[in-house]
Each structure stands twice: as structure tokens, then as C-alpha cells.
Inverse folding.
């Protein structure tokens, strides 16, 4: 204040700095007042119902069953029931992100194919799935596809190792056995050896101009070491083959209709968006770059691999990040088909225990942590690819 | 020019909001005596008054249980529970034929949210096959009125798959999320030493889809609901069996929020009066005649009219928050307990439920109307 | 004429590159590309489908897979599917349990919107001249008419729809006639249409929000959310770029919080907790609570989009605004925002499309009979097992509108030249 007074001495109401401070104070006070009013209303409303804000209910016995997820019984605490829900959400999110990325990449490249038919099919795929509400898609997959599969007694058996029914689609899945640790060390060694060999080939190529075949060398080293390790450590991984029972399957990886519908619907829906991002990013790479690559006589695959994709990737990462976030958030639509994700477990807890305010705040915080983590990882990735060889 | 346009835009937006938010939806005199958070005691003076000011009663109902509360193909919700909502509206407004949208409003709500929304004030009364339990009465601060249906939890399976619940070790069982049924299922199977996997879904519609498709082996719910669902859908699902092993007692009652005794009394005595009317033989048909010329003092008291005895005129003032003659309108609107039962769930309907426990005490049941006096 | 000159490249390029010769032209490339010669059908097929061995194989595989899928879908659509569920529930789909004696309010609103739409089309859209454009429109109209002929029974409904078509046609004609003069009145008209529709449905003994249902509910919720969230979102964006720290922190926190949480969670919050935050005694209908949350949700996204637009404005524009001596808010309103908003139009339309689709989320909370909920309900009351038909028809309604809006947005994008630098 005094500094201003010294120089020009405008009256207080025209002093920019004073006005700025006053404005902020007014803003903050108004916010606090509104917040206080809301909190008082909440407190009053809860008091009228003789309830209080507390998280104690998390320690009580849950009492309700959960249809799938990590091992759990109704005798566990409510807190553990919630954790089961969180794990179920993560399971869908992780598989969904992987599936959506792969399908999205394929469809995005197909959108730009020189083949008219492939291009058109990819476009129809994107146009249809992008413009249909995700919730309808999820319900459709559940009610009209997965539940319409044969019943357990008429399950389709694929060679006796995989089964398709509306109780679950069960497929063999690797299970780690004893000795996996040793094998893991071998695998790590294989990777290290592969990297060393690839470096050596690069140097040879740079020095002599002979072809480097880095990838082949790397894979060969990895596979040989891995295979040797597999034999030495004595079957570290077994294929867990599902077995049909009267009411369901035992073992293997089981896609229940709820999990399957949610996963497939989210993956397809998100992949349509990712496909558009991939297409847009490839097209956004300056025309001159492609022309230059062509001028250098690179083949189409080489153009993509060495010139277009590395640049497109940089453009694509931020929007793809937001698609990953959307997918993660959309897992909460599980409540419409009864998949026990964190949101549907939360609503069950609200009904059995009350405490909707606290429970919803916890659920929101959980989602915030998840989305912030994804954003953080994607930002790291973004930094890694932009700093590498970026001019600025 | 530009200036004027933008102000029109703003004006229109504001107008739209106001129109959307306010038109009659808010109680006119809601300011009244107690404005802010200070006048806590006076604030919740009377729900009855609030409803009358608002001009419409809001009931939380189910729209997926045939017979009790079910949305028909025309988009209308009908059933046993709905008639009780109509009865409350008749009592509060003194209206012999309450109209949907004018006197009462039906808010469909699922099992998971029904209590939270009652607490949030979304509706005034919950008539949605809700079981009266101690923790709901206590911890959840809900007040249950007279039981309008004594129910029990049962298990429905496809015919021939199981002979009894004991055979269902390891089975997949469909259950509605957030219900006492869900808790009972876990407790019962645990007590019997049986293993099971629940398939927890949001409402009966979804369970119906899953059960019909063979997603689960059993469907557990209140016996009345199961009977209704079996009657409605047996053509689609094939023959069904309902096991008589009763997994729990489920007394279903209309529920209001703790804290307003007057409103609770109204809900309680309307329910009670409907049962008593059957006992006394007052029906929707003869109610008018009974009003003019009541058979006995009890009927006169029920209908809130004076009874001309030989020596004196006996008149009863109930002192409830509604007009003394409220039962006249209630009975004219929906009839007595037997009539409501027969209309929606009785032997002549698709559900074909026997009265069972819900028969009057004089007929061997446990429905017992408290006296109006 | 063009003399190729050979050059060899050296360095660390992949080995096979080094052998290839590169043609470098001595003369500058012609500035205008020569017009493409039309291809004969044989040539077209060769270039587009069988340009290489790999491409040929791809074509065959795609043709077999696509053809099989198309055959299955067509067969199901025309011969297997039982469309009775849609036919029986058409009114419920559109307006749910809306009281029949009040249905004229819906029709009146529809005519109002159709008239405005007709006028706008007449003013904005150019006359269709190309044969292809005409054919596409005729085909679309024919498909629509056939669909309606299948779905609708009764004379009354035909008269009502006929009036709608007539109103639309009259609007187009009037729009053509009056041309650009109508632009400003149209903007005002559209702006007033939203409160007008709400009034027509609600006021003077109308239908309370708790009974709004069906596709009408989806539309109302979407329009309200779009309308109200736009100004709020602009304010949030300005706040986020404000130099006042307190304002900035609040806006950033608000936007990130809302964007980090799923809409379903927010909606459940709005139904269960929001009433507790309001002063005691005030009861707000559930649908209003949900709409409030749609507005809050949407404004956070609008805020982000507008911020993106603001960031694209070069500093020079701000400096120019200040140099003119404009105070901050006038500089924003007259110089910065008009440019920034123009750049955000495609993203904004994209957001509004997804908001429109997101209104189906009301079906995840019970008690809102919007289109998806009614479609689901229909298969649990009477048409058990008709899930595919019921859900697909609901999906197609949303798809049709969302797709049309997306196409329109692409056109706008091209016309504005946004994205081209």
C-alpha cells in the first residue's frame, strides 16, 4: 500500500492493487459464507435425522454378498467390501484401456487405409459406436448379447478348455507356480542380454552400414534365455483350464456377463474415439513430413514407423489421456447392470448403512485419485516422448 | 442492436430457469415463521400442513412388483401399495377421488435409494414393500406405520431343478441390491452351512431378464413378490416353484421420517382404518349409506359422524391433523383392506395370493384393526 | 523435359534406402495440381481395392467378414426381429406417462421448434443443387415415411405429423424468401424458444416436471444443461485465467473436481445429498436436482473448452485491446471472447453431443422415465425377450440425432476454417 501511495497516490477506490485485494477478499468471504450455509444446512438436516458425519460405519460387518472379485465373505468389514468394489473397478479399467488402445489403433490406421473397403468399414464402426450413448451399449451387451448366450447346461465347449455360457465365458489363464521367481530372473536376464545385443548391432550398423536386424537379435536372445530358464525352473507357469460344474466354472479366467458386457462395451466405445484421435493425429502431422519421407524413398511401412507415428504419438497423447479418463469414469455405469464396481458397492452400503454424504465423498475421492494417477502417468509419458528429439 | 440482442438472450435464459424451477413446485408460504437455520424447532411444524400448502402428496413407490406397484404398458403405476398412497392423499385433502398429478404424485424409487431419499425429503411417505426392522426404525430414523402386509422371504427356482433350498449349495442366486433380502440371504445360507454366489441386481426387471436367461439358479425375494412375478411371467420362464422354507419375517409397512408425530399418526390411522373398515363391514359401496345412517357406534366413529343412540348423540373427535371425517374419503377412494387386497393381489387376480397371515384376526390371520374411539 | 539427377545418400539411414535413387526436379513444381482424371470402374477397383497383393487379400477378408455381418444384420432386422415392442410403446418412448389430455402441449412445443428449424434451414442452408444431394434427401425422406407408415396407426397421428411437415416446409419457404434479414430474429427466437417450451408444458395448469418423461425428458434436460452451462462455463474459463489468485484457485479446483468424478456419482450425489445442502423447508423436485447437476457438470467442461479457445488468442490481441484503452471486461467481451468462442465451436458441439447422449444416465438412477429407462421397462412388462429390438430402437434414435449433429459440426468446422492455420 505504501509503495503505491508514494508514487501516484490515486484514491483508494481507483487503486488497482487495493481493488484487486478487495475483490479477492470479497470473493473468498462470499465463498466461505455459501460454504458455511451449506454445511450448517447439512448439519441441521442430519441432526434432525439424529445422524452425524462419521466414517465409523466402515468398520462394521458388511453383511451383504458381492457377486465377483477378490475373496470376500459377508462377515468381512464394510471397508473391505468397498475395497472389493475398488478392485473390480480397476480390473475393468485396466483391461478396458488395453483393449481400447489396441482396437482403437487398428481402427484409426484402417480409417486411413488406401483400401476403400477397409476404410469404409472402419468409418462405419467409428460413426456408429461413437454416436450411440454408452449406457445403451452397456445394457445392450449385457441383456441382448451376454445373457443370450447358452445356459450353463448347454454351454458351448471349445475343445474342452474354454467354455461359453451365460454364467460365464471361461478361458484358460496362466497361473504362476513355484519356481516362477527363478524364471522371472531368467526373463530379466534375457531382456538385458537382448538390449546389449541390440546396442551392439546398432554400433555395427553405424560403423559398417550392414543391416542391423536389432529386433530379431533382441527377440532371439530373449526367447532362447526364456526357454532355457523355463526348463531349468521346472514349469513355472501352468495353464489353468476352467472346469465346468453344475452352477458355474472352476478356475481359468471367467468373464461373467456383467464384467464381459461392461468391458466389451467400454472398450468398443472408447476405441471408436481413440480411432478418431489416431486418424486425426496422423493427418495432423505436417504434409511436408510425409512428402519428405516419400521423397527419401521410404516404403509406406517405413514412412509410418520412422516419420509419421513418432510425431503423431506426441499429438495423440493428451486426447488419448482424456479418453482413458473417460473410460475409467464410465466404469461407474456398472450400476446399471449389477457389476459390483466401487459405485454399486457404495450405493449398497448407503442403503444398508446410511451415511450417504460420507460414502459419496469417499467414492468421489477414490475416483479423483484414480483419474489423477492416470493423468500423472500419461504426463510422464508425454514428457518422455516430447523431449526426445523435440526441437523446442 | 448487438447490445439489445445479448440482453434478450440473458433475459430469456433467466426466464426459462425461473419458469422451470418455480411454477407451483415450491410451497408458497415456505418462508413463514422460521427462515434460516435458526428456528429449528418451529421449522418442521407439520408435514401435513406442508403437503396441504404444496397441494400434492408425494409417495415413494415401487414400479416393478406386479400387484403391489407395477408400471403397466401404458406407463401408469398401479397396485396394492399405490392404493395406500391414494388413501393418504384422500385423507390429507379430504378428497373422495384423488387424481394422479393433482392430489398425489408417484415417485418410483429403487430399493437401494429408497431410505436415503426419504431422508432427503424426496417424498413424504414411502409405500414400497419396505420391511420394518429395528435398525431402520432406530439408526435410519424411519418411522413405520401399521403393517399393511405380513410377508416372508422365500426362494423361487425353475421347476424340477431343486427339491429344497438345502440342495442349492454353490448355486447362483439373484437378489435385489440394498434390501433386507440381500442380508437375509447371506445370513440364512451361512446358518445352513451352504455356499452361494449372489448375483446382485438393481431391480426386479433386471433380475427377471437374468433369471429368464438362466443367469441364476434361484431368485430370492418376499414371497408375495415372488408369487406376483410367477403369475406375471410364468409363460416366459417356464414352470416355477416357490419353496416354502421361510428365510425371514418381512412385515411391510408404510414409512415416514422420524420427527413429525402428526404426519406419522395420519399415515398410521389411515392404514389402521382401512383394516378396521373391513372388520366392520364398511366398503366403498356402502360407505355413503353408512355415513348417513351408521349401523353402530364403531362405524360412526370410524367415519367421523355422530351416532344417534336412543338417549344421546355420541361423537368422537380423533384430534388428528386431518379432518375428522377423513376415513369417509379414504374408503370412497380405495375401499377397505379386503377390497384393496382382492383388487390387486387376491385369489381372483393373476397373482392369486391367499390371505394367509393377512386375513383378519377373526378369520385366523393377524391383521387386527385398532379401534377408532 | 524434366531431367532426373541421381544423388546418393550417406549416413545412418536404413540400409535399403541407400540403394534407392531419388529424383530431384530441376524445375519448380507447378503451383496448381492438375485435375484428376476420372477413373474407369475397372481402374477404380484396381487402385482402391487391389493395389497390391496385401491389399487384395485385405479386400477379400474384409468383404467376406463385412458381407456376412451385413447379411446377418439385415436378415435379423427384416425377418427375425419382433418390432411390435416399438410399435406398442412408441408414445411411451416419446413422452412416457405424460397425461394424455395435456399432450397438446407437447405438440404445440414441437410445432414451435419445427417452425423455427424450418426458418433456419431456409435461411442458412444453401439450395441443394447436386443430383446426389437431392437423391440422398429423397431416399432419407422415403425411409422416414416408410418407417412411420409401419409404426403409426390411426388418422389423428398422421394429421398431427402432417401438420408438422407442413409447418416445416412453410418455414423453409419463408426462410428462403426473407433470407438473411431473418438472422437476428432467428437467434432471438431460438433463445426464447427454450423458456417458451418450458412454459407451454408447465404453466397454466400444465404438467409438473416430475411427470416429464420419455425422449422429451432427454431433450429438455439436454437443452437446459446446454443453455445454462454455457454462460457459467465462460465465467469459469475467465476465472481460471484471472490474475486474481483466489478466483483462479477456486475455478481450477472446481473444474478439476467435477471433471475427475463420473457423472453418475455426481447425479447420485445430487439426488441424495444436494437436498441436505439446501436451506431446510425448501423442496426441489428430483428432476430439478438432476438438471442442476447436469448444468454443473457441463459447465466444467465448457470452461475447459473455452479456456482452450482463450489460450489460442495471441498476446497481441490483448495488447491491442489495452492499447485502445478498453477496461478488462470490455476488452474480453469485445476483442478476446468473440475470437476465442469462434475457435471453440467444433469442440463445443462435440461436448453438447456427448451431453445429449449422457442424458441417458438418468436411467441408471431409478425414477426417471427417460427414453432408455422406458425402453428397458417395456421389455420387463410385456415384451420379455425383446431386449434387442427395444434397446436398438432407443439407440438408433440417439444415434440419428448425434450423428446428424456431428456431420453438421464438421460442416461448420470446414466453413469456419477452424483448425487450419
Amino acid at each position: 500500500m505504501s509503495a503505491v501511495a508514494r508514487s501516484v497516490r490515486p484514491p483508494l477506490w481507483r487503486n488497482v492493487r487495493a481493488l484487486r485485494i478487495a475483490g479477492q477478499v470479497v470473493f473468498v468471504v462470499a465463498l466461505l459464507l455459501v460454504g458455511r450455509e451449506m454445511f450448517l444446512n447439512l448439519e441441521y438436516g442430519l441432526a434432525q435425522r439424529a445422524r452425524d458425519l462419521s466414517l465409523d460405519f466402515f468398520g462394521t460387518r458388511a453383511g451383504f454378498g458381492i457377486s465377483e472379485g477378490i475373496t470376500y465373505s459377508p462377515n468381512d468389514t464394510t471397508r473391505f467390501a468397498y475395497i472389493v468394489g475398488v478392485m473390480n473397478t480397476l480390473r475393468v479399467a485396466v483391461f478396458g484401456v488395453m483393449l481400447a488402445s489396441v482396437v482403437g489403433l487398428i481402427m484409426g490406421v484402417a480409417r486411413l487405409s488406401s483400401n476403400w473397403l477397409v476404410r469404409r468399414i472402419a468409418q462405419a464402426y467409428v460413426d456408429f459406436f461413437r454416436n450411440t450413448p454408452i449406457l445403451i451399449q452397456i445394457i445392450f451387451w449385457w441383456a441382448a448379447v451376454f445373457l443370450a448366450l447358452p445356459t450353463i447346461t448347454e454351454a458351448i465347449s471349445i475343445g474342452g478348455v474354454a467354455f461359453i455360457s451365460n454364467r460365464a465365458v471361461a478361458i484358460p489363464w496362466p497361473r504362476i507356480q513355484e519356481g516362477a521367481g527363478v524364471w522371472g530372473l531368467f526373463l530379466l536376464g534375457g531382456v538385458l542380454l537382448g538390449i546389449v545385443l541390440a546396442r551392439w548391432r546398432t554400433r555395427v550398423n553405424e560403423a559398417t552400414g550392414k543391416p542391423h536386424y536389432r529386433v530379431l537379435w533382441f527377440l532371439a536372445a530373449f526367447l532362447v534365455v526364456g526357454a532355457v530358464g523355463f526348463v531349468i525352473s521346472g514349469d513355472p507357469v501352468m495353464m489353468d483350464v476352467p472346469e465346468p460344474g453344475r452352477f458355474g466354472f472352476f478356475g481359468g479366467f471367467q468373464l461373467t456377463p456383467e464384467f464381459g458386457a461392461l468391458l466389451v462395451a467400454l472398450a468398443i466405445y472408447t476405441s471408436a474415439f481413440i480411432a478418431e484421435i489416431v486418424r486425426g493425429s496422423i493427418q495432423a502431422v505436417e504434409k511436408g513430413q510425409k512428402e519428405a519421407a516419400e521423397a527419401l524413398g521410404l516404403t509406406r511401412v517405413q514412412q509410418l514407423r520412422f516419420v509419421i507415428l513418432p510425431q503423431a504419438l506426441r499429438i495423440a497423447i493428451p486426447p488419448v489421456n482424456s479418453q482413458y479418463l473417460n473410460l475409467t469414469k464410465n466404469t461407474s455405469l456398472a450400476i446399471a447392470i449389477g457389476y459390483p464396481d466401487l459405485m454399486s458397492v457404495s450405493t449398497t452400503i448407503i442403503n444398508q448403512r446410511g451415511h450417504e454424504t460420507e460414502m459419496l465423498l469417499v467414492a468421489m475421492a477414490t475416483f479423483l485419485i484414480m483419474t489423477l494417477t492416470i493423468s500423472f502417468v500419461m504426463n510422464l509419458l508425454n514428457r518422455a516422448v516430447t523431449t526426445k528429439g523435440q526441437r523446442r | 442492436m448487438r447490445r439489445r440482442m445479448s440482453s434478450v438472450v440473458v433475459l430469456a435464459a433467466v426466464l426459462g430457469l425461473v419458469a422451470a424451477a418455480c411454477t407451483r413446485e415450491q410451497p408458497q408460504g415456505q418462508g413463514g415463521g422460521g427462515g434460516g437455520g435458526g428456528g429449528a424447532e418451529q421449522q418442521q411444524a407439520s408435514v401435513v400442513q406442508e403437503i396441504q400448502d404444496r397441494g400434492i402428496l408425494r409417495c415413494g413407490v415401487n414400479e416393478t412388483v406386479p400387484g403391489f406397484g407395477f408400471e403397466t404398458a401404458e406407463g401408469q403405476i398401479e397396485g396394492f401399495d399405490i392404493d395406500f398412497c391414494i388413501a393418504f392423499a384422500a385423507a390429507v385433502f379430504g378428497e373422495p377421488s384423488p387424481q394422479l398429478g393433482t392430489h398425489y404424485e408417484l415417485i418410483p424409487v429403487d430399493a437401494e435409494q429408497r431410505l436415503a431419499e426419504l431422508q432427503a425429503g424426496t417424498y413424504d411417505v414411502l409405500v414400497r414393500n419396505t420391511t420394518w426392522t429395528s435398525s431402520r426404525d432406530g439408526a435410519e430414523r424411519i418411522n413405520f406405520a401399521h403393517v399393511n402386509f405380513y410377508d416372508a422371504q422365500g426362494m423361487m427356482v425353475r421347476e424340477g431343478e431343486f427339491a429344497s433350498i438345502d440342495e442349492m449349495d454353490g448355486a447362483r442366486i439373484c437378489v435385489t441390491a440394498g434390501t433386507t433380502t440381500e442380508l437375509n440371504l447371506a445370513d440364512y445360507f451361512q446358518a445352513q452351512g451352504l455356499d452361494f454366489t449372489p448375483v446382485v441386481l438393481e431391480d426386479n426387471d433386471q433380475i427377471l431378464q437374468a433369471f429368464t436367461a438362466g443367469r441364476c439358479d434361484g431368485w430370492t425375494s418376499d414371497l408375495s413378490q415372488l408369487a406376483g412375478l410367477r403369475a406375471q411371467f410364468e409363460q416366459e420362464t417356464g414352470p416355477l416353484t416357490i419353496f416354502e422354507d421361510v428365510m425371514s419375517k418381512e412385515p411391510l409397512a408404510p414409512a415416514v421420517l422420524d420427527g413429525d408425530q402428526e404426519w406419522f399418526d395420519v399415515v398410521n390411522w389411515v392404514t389402521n382404518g382401512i383394516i378396521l373398515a373391513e372388520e366392520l363391514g364398511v366398503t366403498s359401496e356402502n360407505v355413503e349409506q353408512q355415513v348417513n345412517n351408521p349401523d353402530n357406534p364403531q362405524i360412526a366413529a370410524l367415519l367421523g359422524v355422530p351416532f344417534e343412540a336412543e338417549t344421546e348423540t355420541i361423537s368422537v373427535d380423533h384430534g388428528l391433523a386431518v379432518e375428522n371425517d377423513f376415513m369417509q374419503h379414504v374408503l370412497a377412494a380405495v375401499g377397505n383392506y379386503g377390497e384393496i387386497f382382492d383388487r390387486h393381489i387376491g385369489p381372483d387376480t393373476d397373482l392369486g395370493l391367499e390371505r394367509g397371515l393377512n386375513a383378519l384376526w377373526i378369520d385366523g390371520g393377524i391383521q387386527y384393526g385398532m379401534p377408532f374411539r | 523435359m524434366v531431367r532426373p539427377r541421381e544423388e546418393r545418400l550417406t549416413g545412418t539411414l536404413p540400409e535399403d534406402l541407400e540403394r534407392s535413387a531419388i529424383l530431384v526436379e530441376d524445375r519448380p513444381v507447378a503451383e496448381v495440381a492438375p485435375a484428376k482424371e476420372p477413373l474407369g470402374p475397372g481402374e477404380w477397383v484396381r487402385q482402391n481395392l487391389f493395389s497390391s497383393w496385401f491389399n487384395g487379400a485385405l479386400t477379400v477378408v474384409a468383404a467376406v467378414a463385412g458381407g456376412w455381418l451385413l447379411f446377418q444384420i439385415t436378415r435379423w432386422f427384416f425377418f427375425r426381429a419382433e418390432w411390435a415392442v416399438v410399435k406398442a410403446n412408441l408414445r411411451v418412448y416419446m413422452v412416457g406417462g405424460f397425461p394424455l389430455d395435456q399432450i397438446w402441449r407437447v405438440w404445440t412445443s414441437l410445432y414451435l421448434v419445427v417452425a423455427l428449424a424450418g426458418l433456419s434451414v431456409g435461411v442458412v442452408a444453401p439450395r441443394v443443387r447436386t443430383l446426389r444431394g437431392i437423391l440422398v434427401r429423397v431416399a432419407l425422406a422415403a425411409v422416414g415415411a416408410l418407417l412411420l407408415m409401419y409404426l403409426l396407426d390411426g388418422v389423428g397421428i398422421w394429421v398431427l405429423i402432417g401438420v408438422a411437415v407442413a409447418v416445416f416446409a412453410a418455414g423453409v419457404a419463408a426462410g428462403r424468401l426473407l433470407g438473411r434479414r431473418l438472422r437476428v430474429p432467428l437467434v432471438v427466437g431460438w433463445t426464447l424458444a427454450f423458456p417458451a417450451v418450458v412454459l407451454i408444458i408447465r404453466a397454466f395448469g400444465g404438467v409438473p416436471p416430475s411427470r416429464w418423461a420419455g425422449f422429451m425428458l432427454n431433450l429438455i434436460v439436454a437443452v437446459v444443461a446446454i443453455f445454462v452451462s454455457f454462460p457459467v462455463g465462460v465465467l469459469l474459463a475467465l476465472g481460471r485465467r484471472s490474475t486474481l489468485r483466489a478466483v483462479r484457485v477456486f475455478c481450477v479446483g472446481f473444474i478439476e473436481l467435477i471433471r475427475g468424478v463420473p457423472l453418475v456419482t455426481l447425479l447420485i450425489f445430487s439426488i441424495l445429498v444436494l437436498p441436505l445442502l439446501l436451506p431446510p423447508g425448501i423442496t426441489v423436485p428430483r428432476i430439478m436436482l438432476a438438471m442442476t447437476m447436469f448444468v454443473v457438470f457441463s459447465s466444467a467442461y465448457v470452461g475447459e473448452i473455452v479456456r482452450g479457445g482463450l489460450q489460442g488468442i495471441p498476446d497481441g490481441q490483448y495488447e491491442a485491446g489495452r492499447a485502445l484503452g478498453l477496461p478488462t471486461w470490455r476488452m474480453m467481451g469485445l476483442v478476446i471472447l468473440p475470437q476465442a468462442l469462434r475457435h471453440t465451436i467444433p469442440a463445443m458441439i462435440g461436448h453438447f453431443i456427448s451431453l445429449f447422449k449422457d442424458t441417458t444416465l438418468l436411467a441408471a438412477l431409478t425414477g426417471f422415465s427417460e427414453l432408455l429407462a422406458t425402453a428397458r421397462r417395456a421389455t420387463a412388462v410385456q415384451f420379455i425377450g425383446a431386449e434387442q429390438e427395444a434397446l436398438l430402437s432407443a439407440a438408433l434414435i440417439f444415434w440419428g440425432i448425434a450423428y446428424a449433429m456431428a456431420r453438421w459440426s464438421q460442416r461448420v468446422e470446414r466453413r469456419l476454417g477452424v483448425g487450419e492455420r
User: Anything to note?
Assistant: The interface with chain B takes residues 37, 40-41, 44, 48-51, 63-68, 74-75, 143, 147-148, 151-152, 166-167, 245-248, 257, 335-338, 340, 344, 347-348, 350-352, 354, 356 of chain A (CB under 8 Å).
